[in-house]
Amino acid sequence: MTRPAEHPRWLPTQALRRAVAVGGALLLIAVLFRRPDSVVVATPVLVATALGLLRAPRGAVSVALRTSASSMLEGQLMTVSVDVSSDDDLDVATVALPPARFLPPWQARRARSAAVAASRPASIDLDVRSVRWGRRPVGPATVRLTGADCLLHTPVLHTGAVSSTTLPLRDGFEAVDAVPRAEGLVGPHRSRRVGDGTDVAGVRPFQLGDRLHRINWAVSLRAGGLHVTSTYSDRDTEVVIVIDSSSDFGVSGGIDGDPTSLDLAVRAAASIAEHYLRHGDRVGLLDLGQAVRRVPSGAGRAHLVRLLDVLLDVTATQRSIGIRAAIAGIAPNALVLMLSPLVTDAASSRAIELALGGHTVLLIDTLPPGARPPGRSEWTDLAWRLWLLERDVDAGRLAEFGIPVVRWEGAGTLDQVLRDVSRAAGAPRARR
Amino acid sequence: MSAIRTGQDTVLAAARAALVHWMLRGSIIAAGGVALLVTAASWSGPVVVLLALGALLVVAAAVAPGDAAPAAAIVVLLAAWFAVRHGAHTPAAWRTAVYALALYLLHAMSAFAGAVPAGADVDAGAVVRWGRRQIAPVAVIPVVALAAGGLRRVGGSLTLVLLGLAAAAVLAALPVLLLRGRR
Q1: A160: alpha, beta or left, given left = phi > 0 and alpha = psi -120 to 50?
Q2: pLDDT of residue B89
Q3: Exposed, middle or buried, A211 (CB in 10 Å: 0-12/13-18/19+)?
């Protein structure tokens, strides 16, 4: 962001005051005490001062801040550049960035100094490392200019600020191919039905209507009758990620420190979304804290960007506006992955509501491992253990509603539970 | 997406920045040390106190070059110089020249080091550019020292003293006039 060129006020530095005082005093001493050596000592100081002031800056100065990229991933470095242009030569332009909790300077280098040539903009770069997802401003940077051989300096100038987005680091996440209920007739997942597809289901005798290219000639010759290779049909599915943002448990230490429950939820949501979208499925997102911004299911790379954009704005909030309508909008056959630290009863209620509505719901526990509340008394630990026991009981009750609860552990977290849910969905059920 | 930069360059830059700061501060101490050595021809009581105080202030000037410490160090060093050299003879030209050079470098190094914050990564170009600017003032020193060395003590002429005072006043006022003129 560029600030218009301005004529800054130039103030004397300590060096100028020192030079004038010492130089003048030495000349007086030289005359009063007849000391030529005093003139010798004073001369370079006064000559340098006179030359410096002859080169004193008079023109306009402009400072502008820009960044190497507007968005990055957690843990990545970003270069913040401050362009300083001046009509005069400047000895030193020192650029410093204000301390920012989740944008610390790389290698603790918060300031950088460089010379600026007249009418030739100098770009002074500083590296910062974003350690937590979200949107946050970069800057304003402070700039201090020194000219006239370090005899004059400006007050601190401020650049504008630019916004930056840090996308949640996507953990390596892979899930098994099984989906409980397929939504479409084509897609990347193997269905439980035999049909046109790529995964081999077996070899069976030829029936009327079988396609000729399915005939397995080797088996047919051995068996003496026509046999065909049957395959499972391919299906796709719809995955809806629901984030419980009613509370954020813990203190975020960024990507290098301890995560909060929302950190885990957002990173997990990003990983899950990317995984299913990469496999061609349709993914939707519902953040219970901003239900009005529900992202309908969609597919493709552009849709991932849209999902990440909403994830950036996830904050701990307890708003219930529009949640019921948003939940009602979830497709009946969708696989609902709910991310919650199970701190409040509201999340369990929502999960049960979804399950009773006929959705397949998996609840992913995002309570950070090793989480512990700040100690307030000698009873804190005991109270915490009791609360964890109660929480386990609640999770068990959710299982009674057919909602498995699984702790988020990155890759393979959902494999076993997806297999179980798929098996359960395939079992015959009585209609009421 | 932002470009991922390897940390190696940044670590090297950080090491180079630290080196620049150490060199600047080391130069301040070296200049002050030379001024002390040139001054210390005699080790009488009050001079030793001044020299010890000067040494402490030189270190303080290296630690906080942007504050008043360099000025205090220069004042104490000058006091020590005049205390030691307040004899009947004029100091040797070479000794005066070395002293003037050391004192000027102490002043100039402090000015530059005071302009860059302690933790800042200093661009090498800025140091080189500032170093070039110091050639002219340093080159003047031997010329003036030789001229001063050639002079004998001037007799007690009132006219000469008044003329000298006027010249000193003009020279001292020159920076102030230049500063006012640019406003």
Answers
A1: beta
A2: 61
A3: exposed
Q: Which tokens go with A207?
A: 């029936």
Structural contact between residues B77 and B55, judged by C-beta atoms closer than 8 angstroms: no
* Structure token digits, residue A267: 């990173």
Q: In whole angstroms, how far apart are CA A240 and each of A314, A333, A363?
A: 16, 10, 12
- Cβ contact, residue pair A94, B115, below 8 Å: yes
- Global confidence as pTM: 0.73
pLDDT of A197 higher than 80 = no
DSSP class of residue A420 equals H
Number of Cβ atoms within 10 Å of the Cβ of A305 = 11
Return the percentage of chain A with pLDDT > 70, whole number: 85
Measured CA to CA in angstroms, residue A187 lies from A177, A197, A300 at distances of 11, 9, 13
* Helix (H), strand (E) counts: chain A: 9, 21
Amino acid (1-letter code) at residue B112: F
Contact A149 B111 (CB under 8 A): yes
Report the complex ipTM.
0.83
Structure tokens at B102: 């050391």
Q: Do B70 and A18 touch (CB under 8 A)?
A: yes
pLDDT at A416 over 80: no
Using an 8 Å CB-CB cutoff, list chain A residues near B1: 69, 71-73, 76
